[in-house]
What we know:
The chain is mostly helical. It has a domain at about 55-140. It has helices at about 25-30, 40-65, 65-80, 85-95, 95-100, 110-115, 120-130, 135-140. The mean pLDDT is about 85.
Amino acid sequence: MRLIxxxxxxxxxxxxxxxxxxxxxxxRKRSSEPLQNSYESSEKKKRNLVLFDxxxxxxxxxxxxxxxxxxxxxxxxxxxxxxxxxKMREIxxxxxxxxxxxxxxxxxxxxxxxxxxxxAQSCEAYCRYFWNASAADVVRNRVAEPDYGVVD
Length: 152
């Protein structure tokens, strides 16, 4: 009776030579690469901390404006991201910044901060209202510009 072996990288069954360890050359190569997350890579951790700090500073500027001026500022942020500013695009569509359970990117901590949230959360609400699409789709130009109902 033969035992079915599985690839240690992806878990697929292995067929072929009896001493074969991985299902493909690609899996063999991918298994030796280091993980690219904040827990494993100090470079990625530093990059994320800089991104979260930038997001917090932009959110502080945004939330210090009166509510009527925030719409224009958010439109400018979204336009910058749509025109190719990759850092702004990452700030407005980052999944960690959109999570309401954490304080990443929130300049106001504690009870006061819960009502404000992060800039990414505000961008998500803005994009849902004007584009009827997610912030990630809007900042990556997957959706057309909305018709604001302006008559010439």
